[in-house]
Amino acid sequence: MAFRVYGARVLYQRVVAVRIMYRALSAEVHPQSHADFLKGAPHRKHPGVTNLKTLRLPDELQKAAQAIIHGTEVSGLVDKARSLTNFLWSRKRAPEDVTLRERAMALEKNLWEKTKEKGGDVDLQLLKTQITKKVLSDLRKTTYHWSPMRYDEELGVVYMVAKLAGGYAAVKRVLNEIKKRDPSFSPHSLLDFGSGLGTAVWASHSFWGDTLKEMVCVDNSGAMNTIADRLLRGSSEKDEPVIKQVYFRQFLPVSPKVQFDLVVGAFSLSELASQKEREDAILTLWRKTSSYLVLVENGTKEGHQILMDARDILLKKQERTAHDPRRPSVFAPCPHESPCPKLFQLPVVPCNFSQAYSPLPFPGVPDRLTERFSYLVLSRTDWAGGEGLDWARLTAPVLRRPRHVHCQVCCSSGEIKRVVVTAHRHGRDVYRCARSSDWGDQLPIIQPEDDSSNLD
Questions:
Q1: Is there a contact between 33 and 429 (Cβ–Cβ < 8 Å)?
Q2: Could you give the CA distance from residue 56 to residue 62 in angstroms, rounded to a whole number?
Q3: pTM of the shown model
């Protein structure tokens, strides 16, 4: 019996020694999987986690919105809000004149070729008139008819019911990434371009209310500015605003030398009539940016493409007169400055993310909805590499399985890869972080050099 106990003790000691040796070797093989990148945080709250739980509107904002709704005489408000949501989601950019001319020329050429194939004597002048009418008719049938949104008081209230909670959730989710990754950032000024209901003011105030001293909201709709001001003042227009130092304008500040620590353009670039207008607006907003420029759009192909165009304009275009020579650096969501790999996949799937939120309470409306959005954050500081670590962005839901996790990540190399994360291959810390992460979060580079699985 004593011999058996002694043998079992020796075996146990050997097992413990092997485990210690394995952990040491694992730390050498996977240096980034060591807990140093955790900065003392638990795995479920590692530095790459930027997702938020279901977001609710601030109590003051929700009460003010309900007071406006109770005072309005809009009939069928929920149905109109649902229709507006669907319309805005399916909204496309206005077709460019160059594109229309190219399509018209292609149609005309095709019709002339068909006419030549038929042969016979024809009246050229009459035929030319008929072809012109046919081209115009086909263009009218196949061209997206874009028109600017003109918000009066009634449509503004419908928009508030449709987008207030979701827009607030999307902007707050994006700003949360700045707050977490750059805790020293303490903005004193905010510029909100296309401010609408002022959701960027409320979201930024929830993070930096102690330091923000000037918030300028720019929207060309006077009715929207009025509603945004009423939301700040609560149920009574005579009350003092909940958030002070908020100023409403219909045009951007003129001076190119005036800058703001934080500049936000949420769901506004898609409302501009042409590529030229969007380019001018993007360059103007960047001139106004002292630290961070935040752009948010619907998580559609159109929204994603608008943001990628903005990214290319700022990264590639050099202004002749630059009052601030610091070049832009992509802060989020891209871990690189190469062309977006999702644009080269077929079928094209937009790079978008989601945030759960509680909508305004109405009969028949679920208690929890999800806002799907795309975003782009540019910084005046170079964030490439981030403290010597290479971070990848999770671009799809994480699939958790027994003892392994399926991740789709966008890497600093400009490639999208599918990775199966295990504790044995990638280290215990990275594995546990992967299990605790979700779509939109960041992870340290976890792809072993001997196993690359690019997503074509």
A1: yes
A2: 9
A3: 0.85
Tell me if 382 sits within 8 A of 411, measured CB to CB.
no
pLDDT band at 5 (very low <50, low <70, confident <90, very high): very low
Total Cβ atoms within 10 A of residue 379 = 19
3-state secondary structure of 384: coil
Summary mean pLDDT of the chain = 85
Separation of alpha carbons 94 and 271, rounded Å = 9
Question: What is the model's pLDDT at position 454?
Answer: 53
CA distance 448 to 450: 5
State how beta strands 214-218 and 289-298 pair: unpaired
**What is the C-alpha radius of gyration for the chain, rounded to an integer number of angstroms?**
27
Amino acid at 289: T
Residue 22 has pLDDT above 70, yes or no: no
The set of residues, in sequence order, having a beta carbon less than 8 Å from that of 65 and lying 6+ positions away, is 57, 160, 164, 231, 360
| 162-215 pLDDT, tens digit each | 999 999 999 999 999 999 999 999 999 999 999 999 999 999 999 999 999 999
The full DSSP string for 418-450 is: EEEE-HHHH-HHHHHHHHH--TT-EEE----TT
Question: In the chain, pLDDT over 90 holds for what percent of residues?
Answer: 57
Distance between CA atoms of residues 329 and 378, nearest Å: 5
Distances (CA, A) of 179 to 121, 184, 217, 443: 74, 8, 21, 18
CA angle 45, 50, 51 (to 5 degrees): 95
**pLDDT-wise least confident of 137-151, 301-315, 326-340:** 137-151
Burial classification of residue 240, based on how many CB atoms lie within 10 Å of its CB (0-12 exposed, 13-18 middle, 19 or more buried): exposed
Regarding predicted confidence, which is higher, 402 or 238? 402
Please tell me the distance from the alpha carbon of residue 211 to that of residue 320, in angstroms, as a whole number.
34
Residue 69: helix, strand or coil by DSSP? helix
Please, are residues 173 and 353 in contact by the beta-carbon 8 Å criterion?
yes
Which residues touch 206 (CB under 8 Å, ≥6 apart)?
58, 172
